Amino acid sequence: MSWQNDITGDEGKMMRFLSLALSVMLGLAASPAAASEFKIGGLTVETPWSRATPGKARSGVVYLTISNQGTAPDRLVSISTSVAKRAEIHRSQMKGSMMTMESIGALTLRPASSVLLRPGGLHVMLMGLQAPLKRGGSFDMTLKFEKSGSLTVKVAIEKIGASAPMRPH
Hints:
about 20% helix, globular
């Protein structure tokens, strides 16, 4: 006789509910990483996402994490996408009481480390948008690394003003 047969009534219902809830949570926890990881050589790009843009906006942003599990440094030297005329790595920072942004050129990726591109810090700046970025959509973006080569990632578009991705990609 198994333990399940010994539990009846409300206790049995609660155990079945908890078992189902745990299965669902484990499934949700596993799916976003698998769906939004892109690899080339020792580099992994995780969870690329962007914010939707209002009608006539000419610029947008992309956030992501790049991890270098390799033993040698690499550099992100260029970015391209069909949704914008230009894409560059920018850094946002406070200077006095004003938030400023500047292009940093190439991004160095040290071995055994990660670089987080996030709101208020490093980010990909999309300039000359060809059309508005619409929530729920996605677009391809190609990252060119000095040593590892080119990697195309799929960027999910979140709501205007999002501070982090809200759904599995």
